[in-house]
Design brief:
Blueprint (H helix, E strand, L loop, with lengths): L3 E5 L4 H12 L3 E6 L2 H14 L5 E5 L7 H8 L5 E6 L14 H29 L2 E6 L12 H21 L4 E8 L14 H14 L8 H12 L10 E4 L7
Parallel strand pairs: 1-2, 1-4, 2-3, 4-5, 5-6, 6-7
Helix pairs in contact: 1-2, 1-7, 4-5
The chain binds NADP nicotinamide-adenine-dinucleotide phosphate.
């Protein structure tokens, strides 16, 4: 039976790679991001991987979440059974430079954005007695680093919230798991657009931080998200899954 996966942050990085993975595996897709242009590009590339699936896009800032628009898009797809919350923002600020607005922004997107869309899908998952939620947190949720307090705290909240969801969803066959990526090369980081020679130096530094001596690629995270989202992990809920080259235990 055809099923649909809803992916936030699908216009870039980890969410984009996740869209390609689920497309290749035959799922219908609802791709959510802010940029219509980027979403359309991802849609085209995902469709090229599988012409038999239906793909819808929804350009929406999660700070202005609109449940009606979400439901209208879902109506065009097969039954949604998986939600991947990958949308996120990141900032590095010293404690005395981290304004309350920055704190609010981190929580508005990284936590409340995911909460709002999860609340919209929860009744559908419950009615169908089937649902799988994969939240994308970060290694900083478990091992915070200096000058990331607002980001790290928002991601720690995501991990904690995911555990609650797992406890609340079990009786309805709703699973909830969280992936904690390490440093992944995506536009989230300033170094993504650095000049080649500068980037080489940054890469060398990041590589040295890992137990596995390579920088993270969005595809590595997408593989784990697919595992946790799909029935491959049918008896897994409440898991905190590190995909980080070992940085978390170094
Ligand atoms: N990259 C890493 O090293 C790393 C490490 C640990 C955790 N993570 C987490 O992984 C997730 C994905 O990050 P990424 O590396 O793939 O970053 P990315 O390439 O910058 O992608 C971020 C995505 O989030 C979307 N987004 C941002 N703010 C939004 C908002 N207000 N409303 C709706 N969508 C919004 C962006 O949409 P538009 O592009 O359309 O604006 C984009 O699709 C994030 O939650 C991030 O915290 C990343």
């Amino acid at each position: 039976m055809q099923e649909a996966v809803v992916i936030t942050g699908a216009s870039s990085g980890i969410g984009e790679a996740t869209a390609y993975k689920f497309a290749s595996e035959g799922f219908d897709l609802l791709l959510i991001g802010r940029s219509t242009e980027k979403l359309e590009k991802v849609k085209t590339q995902a469709q090229a991987r599988n012409i038999n699936i239906k793909i819808e896009t929804l350009a929406m800032d999660l700070k202005d979440f609109d449940a009606t628009k979400l439901q209208a898009k879902l109506a065009k797809l097969s039954k949604p059974t998986i939600l991947v919350n990958s949308a996120g923002v990141y900032t590095q600020n010293k404690p005395d430079d981290t304004s309350l607005d920055i704190w609010k922004d981190m929580f508005e997107v990284n936590l409340f954005g995911s909460v709002k869309i999860t609340q919209s899908l929860w009744p559908i998952f419950k009615a169908n007695q089937k649902g799988s939620i994969v939240n994308v947190a970060s290694t900083t949720a478990l091992k915070p680093t200096p000058n990331t307090s607002a980001y790290s705290a928002s991601k720690a909240a995501v991990v904690n919230w995911t555990t609650c969801l797992a406890q609340e969803g079990g009786e309805f066959n709703i699973r909830a798991n969280v992936v904690c990526p390490g440093i992944v090369e995506t536009p989230l980081h300033n170094f993504y657009n650095a000049k080649a020679n500068e980037k080489d130096k940054i890469h060398a530094g990041i590589t040295d931080m890992q137990l596995l001596k390579k920088i993270g690629r969005p595809e590595y995270i997408a593989e784990s998200i697919f595992f946790l989202g799909s029935e491959q992990s049918t008896w897994t809920t409440g898991a905190v899954h590190n995909v980080d080259g070992g940085i978390n235990i170094k």
